[in-house]
Amino acid sequence: MTALSPIDAAARDRAGRLALGALLAGAVAIGFSPIFVRLSEIEPTATAFWRVALALPLLAVWMRAAGPPARAPRRPSSVRDFARLAICGLFFAGDLICWHWAIRYTSVANATLFANFAPIFVTLGAWALFGERFTRLFLAGLACGVAGAALLVGDSLSIGMTTAAGDLLGIATAVFYGAYILAVGRLRAEFSVATVMTWSGLATAAAILPVALLLGEPMLAGTATGWAILIGLAWISHAGGQSLIAFALAHLPAAFSSVSLLLQPMIAAALAWVLLAEPLGPVQAAGGSVILAGIVLARIGSRAARGAPKA
């Protein structure tokens, strides 16, 4: 491996720190999404549609205002480019649809736990599809993070045949979100954040809308407060949070990023405690601490793997 000059190494470190900050800020922003969904006046699938659809004008204006890129990243220019962006959006649609159906057929705790298996599938996908290698320290951080997520919801877990369908949908949520993270990571090597978010978002909204209509869910909020909640979900959690994550994925490994996103259920639990008066006991606090330890271990393990010479 060619050694970086001190200037290049310093620039890479600065970009890495900025990306890590964006990733963690994105995790905080999407941590608000369960609160918005809980407060929404309409059904979950319709809420998921508006989460993306109301963000699209904001993202489209951003993409338009950015103008033609003077250098990489480039703009999509072929059927293959648009197809890849659409597939990325379909992965996210699958994530949202499976997540909301999982909540219907199993407990919120079960759905949350299984959805947070996404880092496992990201790591497996990065290894199987792209030949990425991981240090034992990173894998220890991954295990720590998932164990912390289990502790966070452990008091409410209920495993059995009655929850099997919902539990499988929770695992499907993790698979779809893992595929989405890997796809965004690859697309960000070629396209800007605004481009990825806008074009993939169009595919996401187009895939969710017919599902919501087939389910017969009312599509319109009945009050200004209901629309304000949907706008908050769209602008804060989607346009804000997911865009920050997409920015970070151009500079950080997808596997490490997915482990760091385990911060999201911890933020959601803290917000539910503050805003909805939902109990947060010592076991949940311990789970949050284990998640943080897992993120730190995964970060150290990722940096070690990145700095190691490639065979």
How is this fold's topology laid out?
Layout: H1 6-31, H2 33-39, H3 44-53, H4 56-66, H5 79-105, H6 108-115, H7 118-130, H8 136-153, H9 164-187, H10 193-214, H11 224-248, H12 254-260, H13 263-275, H14 282-307
Care to count the β-strands? Answer: 0
Element order: H for helix, E for strand: HHHHHHHHHHHHHH
Please summarize the sheet with the most strands.
Answer: none
Indicate the mean pLDDT.
85
User: How many helices?
Assistant: 14
First CA to last CA: what distance?
8 Å
Cα Rg: 19 Å
Q: What fraction of residues sit in β-strands?
A: under 5%
Relative helix content: over 70%
Query: Which regions have little confidence, pLDDT < 50, spanning 5+ residues?
Result: none
Indicate the structural class.
Answer: mainly alpha
Give the CA-based shape: globular
Can I get a quick summary?
The N and C termini lie close together (8 Å). This protein has helices spanning 6-31, 33-39, 44-53, 56-66, 79-105, 108-115, 118-130, 136-153, 164-187, 193-214, 224-248, 254-260, 263-275, 282-307.
